Amino acid sequence: MEMLVCGFSIVVTYWGIRVRMVSRGQWLSVLICVVLLLKAEGVPVGITFVENAVAKGAVCLDGSAPAYHFHKGSGAGINNWIVHFEGGGWCNNVTSCLSRRDTRLGSSKKMDTQLSFSGFFSNSKKFNQDFYDWNRIKVRYCDGSSFTGDVEAVDPRTNLHFRGARVFAAVVEDLLAKGMKNAQNAIISGCSAGGLAAILNCDRFKALLPRTTKVKCLADAGYFINVKDVSGAQRIEEFYSQVVQTHGSAKNLPSSCTSRLKPGLCFFPQNVVSQISTPIFFVNAAYDSWQIKNILAPGAADPHGQWRECKLDIKNCSPNQLSVMQVFRTDFLRAFGAVGNSPSKGHFIDGCYAHCQTGTQETWLRNDSPVLGNTTIARAVGDWFYDRRAFHQIDCAYPCNPTCHNRIFDQNALPDV
What is the architecture of the domain spanning 45-394? Predict the structure, then answer.
């Protein structure tokens, strides 16, 4: 992601900050600007390990305790809760799960002990008008199945634990004991694979809370669609089928879908959303950058790297590649049609090249944030949650929206998750 800070071009990655083309003497000025930016827009929150979950078998891939980051609410928001599930892709077999097991995506022992909360999780009324004083929780992702897996057996040769659904239940139980049992309002949310988790667990989350709690769900960049890649292969359908089989997820997917379709197909929101009874809001880019990079044009379908520069920056795409991406948008909107226009199901579908927009201040609520119908994501979600108005907005085709924050990827950075 690239932004302009204090006149310098700053590239923010998952693993740090790079500054494009500055002299050695300018570094101090840049550093001061970045520190001030982070101080204004984010607050560090420490980690909590759910140690008592281990006895229940609710563990990460490596058998370590699940974890979350909890920023307590205050004032009028003391009994309001946001429980957000982190993203990070999936593992579909023993080999790919082993590659995650000893990383932050498979072990709480490898996780950062602090995360910065901003955007939807900010405690500043200026930056998060409707939810700043709520209890805000980020649940770390370490199971590789969007919190759906549950296999009892553990192979001693790999020590892999497929227990995502147990982690989900254990974390919610822990939060209930810490005050969520008194919740007046609650939102389950997630980004990417966590956004998919919010969709698949939406009704389950509501069922675990008191009947008097107003519960809604928010999926950010979680609407993954079932399409062929640029080589014509149905790669993502096969991949999801393998995820579900490896993790034993079928029994934890909505039965309204698994009673009709193969379990792997029930990992696609388009086959699930019409049966969700709990109110839910979708934030998604029609040109979702993760899906373009990993579903439409994955490396396996592009052996000569013709899509590489295009995937790094949409401005680098050729006319032919843009045409293919416009077809992807059409396919996305067709799949999204399953949501319908019920007042309880809101959506903000922008025409940006982006992925996960609620947890970043620049896309959630700032003077230059993306807008649809003169409305920011923050305002749209707040209006929908508090029943001020329904919100169903789908953007025009790229590049018509000048407010987009289109992602620019560092070619040396780790793959997007």
Answer: 3-Layer(aba) Sandwich (3.40)
Per residue in 231-287, pLDDT tens? 999 999 999 999 999 999 999 999 999 999 999 999 999 999 999 999 999 999 999
Rounded to 5°, angle at Cα 40 from 36 and 45: 105
212 C-beta neighbours (distance < 10 Å), count: 8
The single residue listed with the structure tokens 């077999």 is: 93
pTM (2 d.p.): 0.90
Please give the Cα distance from 290 to 193 (Å, whole number).
Answer: 11
Compute the distance between CA of residue 188 and CA of residue 165 in angstroms, rounded to an integer: 15
Q: Provide the annotated active-site residues.
A: 192, 288, 355
CA atoms of 9 and 58, how far apart (whole Å): 43
> Cis (ω within 30 of 0) for the bond into 66?
no
Find, among 220, 188, 182, 219, the residue nearest to 206 by Cα. 188
CB neighbour list of residue 269: distance below 8 Å, 6 or more residues apart: 196, 199, 219, 222, 223, 224, 335, 338
Name, in order, each residue with C-beta under 8 angstroms of 35's C-beta and a sequence gap of 6 or more.
Answer: none
Distance CA 324, CA 308 (A): 14
Q: How far apart are CA 342 and CA 223, in angstroms?
A: 17
Helix (H) or strand (E) holding 208: helix 202-208
Contacts of residue 52, defined as CB under 8 A and 6 or more positions apart, other chains included, come to 170, 174
Cα–Cα distances in angstroms (integers) from residue 162 to residues 100, 101, 150, 195, 402, in the given order: 12, 11, 5, 19, 44
Question: For 34-74, what is each residue's pLDDT tens digit?
Answer: 444 444 468 999 999 999 999 999 999 999 999 999 999 99
- How far apart are the C-alpha atoms of 314 and 294, rounded to whole Å? 15
Please list, in sequence order, all residues whose beta carbon lies within 8 angstroms of the beta carbon of residue 104, skipping any fewer than 6 positions away.
Answer: 110, 111, 112, 140, 142
Q: Are the beta carbons of 307 and 230 closer than 8 angstroms?
A: yes
